[in-house]
Amino acid sequence: MLHTSTTLLAAALCSLVSALPTTNTVARAGGPAIVPIPSTCTVTDSLPADSNTSYVPSPAAHDDILYSSYYPSYTSNTTAMAQQCLQQCYGYGYHVECKTAYWAENIVVPAGYYGTAGGQLETACLMFSKVLTSDDFVAAPEGQGKSAIASSIAC
Questions:
Q1: 141 within a domain of the structure (yes/no)
Q2: Is Signal among the key words of this record (predicted)?
Q3: CB 153 within 8 A of CB 41
Q4: What is the distance between the alpha carbons of residues 73 and 122, in angstroms, rounded to a whole number?
């Protein structure tokens, strides 16, 4: 009888301990949540005003990237994809960490991105921890940075 009680107690204790939350947090799959931006927030364009030139973030701006995602375009509606990127920027963390979202097609995937060699052109959504200004962008190489949108969020 004592052996059975001890076994049941041990099993119950193991079940309880395995159900408790852990302090060991591991990055989970998926990107930031897509959260609509409240009307109390201000969204401003961060790209230089020259509409005849495509722009990409400068190498120095890459030091402030919070999150990056590179993927094949899943729709021809570039406005919807850019809006989703901006809403994910707002959905990052507690809605104050991401200050600027940059979205464009034909961006070079960096080497090491999810273990890849990189170098291919993909659609990109880049999120930054600081407000980017027009000074934080450089002219894109020919054929890159198509349909670029960069917007800063202030709430």
A1: yes
A2: yes
A3: yes
A4: 7
Q: Which helix (H) or strand (E) holds 154?
A: strand 146-154
Q: How far is CA 29 from CA 33, 49, 53, 69, 92, in A?
A: 12, 36, 35, 12, 14
Query: How many folded domains does the chain comprise?
Result: 1
CA distance 133 to 50: 14
Q: Each residue of 100-142: pLDDT tens digit? A: 999 999 999 999 999 999 999 999 999 999 999 999 999 999 9
Return the closest-CA partner of residue 36 out of 98, 87, 99: 87
**Contacts for 92 with CB less than 8 Å, ≥ 6 apart:** 32, 66, 67, 98, 127
83-105 pLDDT, tens digit per residue, is 999 999 999 999 999 999 999 99
Least trusted range by pLDDT, from 15-24, 52-61, 120-129: 15-24
**Looking at the domain assignment, is residue 118 inside a domain?**
yes
- Which domain does 93 fall in, by range? 42-154
Position 15 in a domain: no
Average the pLDDT over 76-81 and give the result: 94
Question: Would the pTM of this model clear 0.85, i.e. be above it?
Answer: no
